[in-house]
Design brief:
single chain; Beta-Lactamase; globular; alpha+beta; about 150 residues; PduO/GlcC-like
């Protein structure tokens, strides 16, 4: 690699295909213990779908919602359940942002942060949809824990 190219590139961490698959599988397994049917998605740091798993009987509309929850968490770096606090009493902000395509402002999306000696790197997001927001988030957290991470 040329010296010029090295100076103009930035190293980055990405979630592996194996870790993404393990996370959605763990989210689905946790949903089974709760007796709910979900869709689970993992996106990489750029918002591209890395893994997806749908339980038989999970709501069809929840497919895209799960993917968009993961995308939203990866885009902003915080759980989708935190959006109400971000909006606060700013009604115009709530209305304006909640109408943006792919932005989901309900619980069930968690960022995936890789923690290392140099700090934390945002490498993606996991999103779950199909149950209550609290159950969705619990399933997403189970996915993170399965790959050795926490929210």
């Amino acid at each position: 690699m040329s010296d010029r190219l090295e100076r103009s590139s930035v190293p980055q961490h990405v979630i592996s295909a194996e870790a993404a698959a393990q996370a959605v599988a763990a989210a689905v397994a946790h949903a089974g213990t709760l007796g709910v049917r979900i869709n689970a998605a993992v996106v990489d740091g750029g918002g591209t779908l890395a893994a997806f798993l749908r339980m038989p009987g999970a709501f069809l509309h929840s497919v895209e919602i799960a993917i968009d929850k993961a995308y939203t968490a990866a885009s902003f770096g915080f759980p989708t359940a935190q959006w109400p606090a971000v909006f606060g009493s700013d009604e115009l902000l709530r209305i304006g942002l909640s109408q943006r395509p792919r932005l989901v402002v309900i619980g069930g999306g968690l960022p995936i942060h890789l923690k290392g000696p140099d700090g934390s790197a945002l490498i993606g997001g996991i999103g779950v949809s199909g149950a209550s927001a609290e159950q969705d988030e619990a399933c997403a957290l189970a996915g993170l824990r399965a790959i050795g991470l926490t929210s």
